[in-house]
Amino acid sequence: MEPLDDHDLKPILSTWKAPDAPEDLQRRVFGPPQRSWWAWLFTGAIRVPVPACAAIMLLLAWLAFARQPAEIPVAAPSPEQQTVVTLADFHPHAEIQVKVVGALP
Amino acid sequence: MTRAEVEQAFAAHKDAVYRFAWRMAPDAADDIAQDVFLRLLRGQIEFDATRGSLRSFLLGVARNLALQHLRSNARWDSIDEEQFVASPISMDGLDIREIVGRAVRALPPLQRDVFVLAEYEEMSLEEIARAVDANVGTVKARLHRARVNLRGMLAPVLGNQVRLKADTTMGTKRVG
């Protein structure tokens, strides 16, 4: 078995280039990249079952309703406590005498 | 291997594994490359550093997966590899790269894998022997037959090599 002389074959073979690995191969092997917790606060999402979500909403609604301050009733004055003001006995002065106290410079 | 070690292996060898898979089975290259590293990550395959380099090991795994794929898709003819007769590839309207690609992919799988590993991944005979789980003599024989067959298939191109060289230096690679 004689070794083939490849000097004429090699340049032709080298024209056949294969592509590099695609970008998404890493995600396919290792899954999506892990994010820090603070990034999750801005972009994260959680799944909540509908019954749990409904229960939470009802609880929040009940808490909001229960914490409202009750109205304080304003007591109406009793008839005995009522005072009647009348000007029937009012007599204005007929003559006003002005008296200056103290000396002027 | 730890996850960090697998990530290092992935960064270093993903392109070699993908290129090899693409040359062996282009329609399944993504799946084969993914499967090689997933198996490593899940501990389904164990790398033994005393038995060769990590690169040869990963290419060997990729090779086995590619052969499995070819078998399952009935693209591995029952024809005896020894009896494979290479006929010249038609060059009508084909780019020189396409002609070479067709010729290499027309090789029987057991010739194709050793040829791709030797020619394109530049592995030594010993490394190829470990990767394909055969002895060096068998690898040499397959490699020789692969080259003889390629010469037969690429005869029209080799005949026009002077013209091809002129074309490639001018930027036109179309033959026909």
Explained architecture:
The complex is a heterodimer of chains A (105) and B (176). With 105 residues, chain A is mainly alpha-helical. Chain A has a domain of 42 residues. Chain A has four helices and no strands. The longest helix of chain A is centred in the middle third of the chain and has 17 residues. Chain A is elongated and about 140 Å long. The termini of chain A are far apart. The mean pLDDT of chain A is 80. Chain B has 176 residues and is an all-alpha fold. Chain B folds into two domains: 70 residues, RNA polymerase sigma factor, region 2, helix turn helix motif (Rna Polymerase Sigma Factor, Chain: A), CATH 1.10.1740; 90 residues, Arc Repressor Mutant, subunit A. Helices cover 66% and strands 0% of the residues of chain B. Chain B has nine helices and no strands. The C terminus of chain B is likely disordered. The interface between A and B is medium-sized, with 22 and 39 residues.
